[in-house]
């Protein structure tokens, strides 16, 4: 099958994957199925925990009159099909039963329970190739790794992807000298912060923030109403949370972990299947997380305001010389009314799993030339399709 058709299918699968929710603990996955002529047959994406996976959604979208076209088809998926029975059956088995002859996936599944779909498919005669080995556009492969990087990272290391948030003046203050901080940033920046809240599984603050500011920690829309998804509100620290605290009464779940050990907190959230966590505590909590290297992504909201005095966004990190400065990689910037948002990730050495690594295969393989693909394609073009294909 022509590479341009496979590239187009992967590009479309990535577009579909981006429709999936950021929160919920599951990866964002898209799937496009091409018939033996390279024409689009069906597509689907994962809409969140408990719903059909992308491959199952695509298979279900094939009309009954076109089911026979699945025989010999090629499935292009952003993530390796699962080999695990959870809320839904394994996608690897569903693709095989449907008669799909080849599967191309952009990212290998690192999950110790769900992984293994590619090997299972290969053992059952289905050609399986990662997109790089299949010779697909490296930019698309990198885009897939970038899209899934927070989730795959969280799964591999057994710790949620942690986002640290600051909202500061131009001179880096989070409050004025008298402690007042509402509001440094404007309404557009605050509205964006609620969008971020709605896209995480949990928000973490310390008891000091709860006692000083009494935040609700809910995700709210422009109209002030609660968003459909509410992250778990997590308060850490040994002090009691007052019975009247707003964090207790909002929609969704709240949790009090009586510890200052951020590593233990993140381990508990991982045990609960929470993959994306937002740290909204004050400078002390953020500084502790930065010192331990726990922050993966920074969201810095900066307002064109000068305070001249007051607490800074980050405390002492133990850095004494500019050569030891913690360097971050800017991912994007966005203007929000008068304010600016800078999103950055920790600058780490490139590794084989890093989304900036070029994954072009030295000898691209054609996923449609296996004996099974040929046989299934021959069956698909027969005027008398099998009973399975016509069902």
UniProtKB/TrEMBL annotation:
Under catalytic activity, the entry for this protein gives: 5-amino-6-(5-phospho-D-ribitylamino)uracil + NADP(+) = 5-amino-6-(5-phospho-D-ribosylamino)uracil + NADPH + H(+); 2,5-diamino-6-hydroxy-4-(5-phosphoribosylamino)-pyrimidine + H2O + H(+) = 5-amino-6-(5-phospho-D-ribosylamino)uracil + NH4(+)
Tagged with keyword Nucleotidyltransferase: no
Q: Does the keyword Translocase apply?
A: no
UniProt pathway: Cofactor biosynthesis; riboflavin biosynthesis; 5-amino-6-(D-ribitylamino)uracil from GTP: step 3/4; Cofactor biosynthesis; riboflavin biosynthesis; 5-amino-6-(D-ribitylamino)uracil from GTP: step 2/4
**Active site per UniProt:** 55
The entry's free-text remark on the cofactor is:
Binds 1 zinc ion.
- Residues binding substrate are 167, 181, 183, 197, 217, 220, 280
Point to the regions of Low complexity compositional bias: 355-391
Q: Name one Pfam family in it.
A: RibD_C
A GO biological process held by the record: riboflavin biosynthetic process
UniProt cross-references to InterPro entries, sorted A to Z: APOBEC/CMP_deaminase_Zn-bd, CMP_dCMP_dom, Cytidine_deaminase-like, DHFR-like_dom_sf, Eubact_RibD, RibDG_C, Riboflavin_Biosynth_HTPR
Q: Any idea of its EC number?
A: 3.5.4.26, 1.1.1.193
- Cofactor(s) demanded: Zn(2+)
GO MF, one term, reads: 5-amino-6-(5-phosphoribosylamino)uracil reductase activity
Keywords, A to Z, come to:
Hydrolase, Metal-binding, Multifunctional enzyme, NADP, Oxidoreductase, Riboflavin biosynthesis, Zinc
PANTHER family recorded for this chain? Answer: 2,5-DIAMINO-6-RIBOSYLAMINO-4(3H)-PYRIMIDINONE 5'-PHOSPHATE REDUCTASE, DIHYDROFOLATE REDUCTASE FAMILY PROTEIN (AFU_ORTHOLOGUE AFUA_8G06820)
- Role summary: Converts 2,5-diamino-6-(ribosylamino)-4(3h)-pyrimidinone 5'-phosphate into 5-amino-6-(ribosylamino)-2,4(1h,3h)-pyrimidinedione 5'-phosphate.
Its family? In the N-terminal section; belongs to the cytidine and deoxycytidylate deaminase family. In the C-terminal section; belongs to the HTP reductase family.
The identity of this protein, by name, is: Riboflavin biosynthesis protein RibD
Species of the source:
Georgenia ruanii
- Gene symbol here is ribD
């Amino acid at each position: 099958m022509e590479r341009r058709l496979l590239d187009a299918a992967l590009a479309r699968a990535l577009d579909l994957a981006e429709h999936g929710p950021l929160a919920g603990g599951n990866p964002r996955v898209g799937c496009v199925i091409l018939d033996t002529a390279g024409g689009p047959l069906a597509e689907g994406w994962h809409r969140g925990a408990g719903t059909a996976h992308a491959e199952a959604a695509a298979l279900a979208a094939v009309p009954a009159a076109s089911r026979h076209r699945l025989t010999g088809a090629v499935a292009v998926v952003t993530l390796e099909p699962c080999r695990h029975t959870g809320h839904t059956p394994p996608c690897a088995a569903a693709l095989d039963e449907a008669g799909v002859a080849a599967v191309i996936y952009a990212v290998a599944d690192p999950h110790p329970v769900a992984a293994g779909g590619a090997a299972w498919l290969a053992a059952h005669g289905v050609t399986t190739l990662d997109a790089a080995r299949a010779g697909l556009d490296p930019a698309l492969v990198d885009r897939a790794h970038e899209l899934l990087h927070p989730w795959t990272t969280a799964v591999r290391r057994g710790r949620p992807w942690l986002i640290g948030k600051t909202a500061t003046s131009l001179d880096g203050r989070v409050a004025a000298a008298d402690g007042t901080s509402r509001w440094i940033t404007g309404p557009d920046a605050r509205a964006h912060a609620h969008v971020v809240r709605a896209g995480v599984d949990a928000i973490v603050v310390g008891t000091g923030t709860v006692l000083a500011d009494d935040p609700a920690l809910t995700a709210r829309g422009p109209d002030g109403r609660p968003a459909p998804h509410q992250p778990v509100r997590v308060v850490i620290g040994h002090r009691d949370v007052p019975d009247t605290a707003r964090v207790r009464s909002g929609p969704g779940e709240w949790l009090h972990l009586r510890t200052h050990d951020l590593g233990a907190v993140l381990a508990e959230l991982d045990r609960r299947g929470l993959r994306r966590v937002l740290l909204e505590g004050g400078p002390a909590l953020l500084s502790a997380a930065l010192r331990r290297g726990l922050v993966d992504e920074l969201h810095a909201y900066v307002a064109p305001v000068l305070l001249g005095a007051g607490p800074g966004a980050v405390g002492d990190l133990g850095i004494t010389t500019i050569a030891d400065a913690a360097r971050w990689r800017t991912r994007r910037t966005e203007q929000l009314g008068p304010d600016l948002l800078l999103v950055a990730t920790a600058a780490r050495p490139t590794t084989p799993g890093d989304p900036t690594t070029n994954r072009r295969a030295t000898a691209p393989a054609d996923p449609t030339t296996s004996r099974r693909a040929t046989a299934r394609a021959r069956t698909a073009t027969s005027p008398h399709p099998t009973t399975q294909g016509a069902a």
